[in-house]
Amino acid sequence: MYLKNTVLLFLLAVFSNTKISVGATADTKWSFLNWNKDSAISWEEKWKIDHWAYPRDHQQDITIVNDPQYETIKVLRVTYPKDSYNPSSFPVGGVGFYAKPIPIPEKARIIKLTYQVYFPYTFEWKLGML
C-alpha cells in the first residue's frame, strides 16, 4: 500500500509545537517546535512530505506568520475560504499532506501525534467564522 507507515495530516487553523512519537526510543521521536527558522521549502523537507492530499496550488491557504499570542514565535496559519467544508468539494480550503518525519516500525502499536491549535476568541463555532 502506497501510504503504509505514513502520517496523514489535515491541519486546521494555526498550529505549533508538533511532536510525533512511536514507542519510547530516542530514534522514534521527532519534534518541530516552531517555524522561526524555516521557509516554506525547508519545513516541507523537515517534515519529509511524501504526498500532498490537496494539490500544491491550494497552498495559498498556508502561511508562516507570527503566533497570535507570542509574537516572537512563528507558526503555520491554515485558512479556509468561505463555503469550504470538504476537500472533495469546491472551494477547497486548508491543507492536507502525507508526511514521514520518522520511520514507523511495522510492529508499532501506538503512534502519538500532538500539536497545538489556536482559534481566535471571536471565532463562532456554530457558524465556522470570525
From TrEMBL:
<feature type="signal peptide">
    <location>
        <begin position="1"/>
        <end position="23"/>
    </location>
</feature>
<feature type="domain" description="Polysaccharide lyase 14">
    <location>
        <begin position="72"/>
        <end position="128"/>
    </location>
</feature>
<dbReference type="Pfam" id="PF21294">
    <property type="entry name" value="Polysacc_lyase_14"/>
</dbReference>
<dbReference type="InterPro" id="IPR048958">
    <property type="entry name" value="Polysacc_lyase_14"/>
</dbReference>
<keyword id="KW-0732">Signal</keyword>
<protein>
    <recommendedName>
        <fullName>Polysaccharide lyase 14 domain-containing protein</fullName>
    </recommendedName>
</protein>
